[in-house]
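Justification of computing resources. Each target in the renewal requires a structure prediction run like the one illustrated here; the chain below, 168 residues long, is used simply to show the kind of job we budget for.
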Amino acid sequence: LARNDIATVGRSSIEEGVAITGDLHPIESVEIRARIEGDLVGLFAREGQRVKAGDLLARFEASEQESNLASARADRTAAQSELATAQWNLEQTTELFRAGAVAERDFKMAEQGVVTAKARVAAAEARVRATMSLVNDTRVVAPTTGTISMRAVENGEHVARGAELFTL
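Resulting structure tokens:
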């Protein structure tokens, strides 16, 4: 007998399988789209990369949105100052009206000044919230945990609003 004819017996597991061909598709697929139009200044995810919910995937150039936010905050501060002045004027006019030193028309105008100033503050607050939302939209984050299956953009590319960025 030759050496090739002799085998040593030992314990081992026997595995048997069937080769299968075809495409694998995930149970759930999420398309991540741009909420704003702009230039991409950073891409932080590649195809095949595993990401968690909230991970930063991409970033848009945000100087315009940040300038608008600074302007909105300044408008809010000015509106709050106008409101404080209008309230002070109303307090002074109320005292003078009770003493009979000013006409009712002046008292009503002071009341209207406070109402107008409050409306300006509310409008400024809404503008701050809206511009804050736009600043947040310059950061593209993963909505859920998964694997990046496709990256449809490249760094530095100008992207239209609603354009597909990633498939997760």
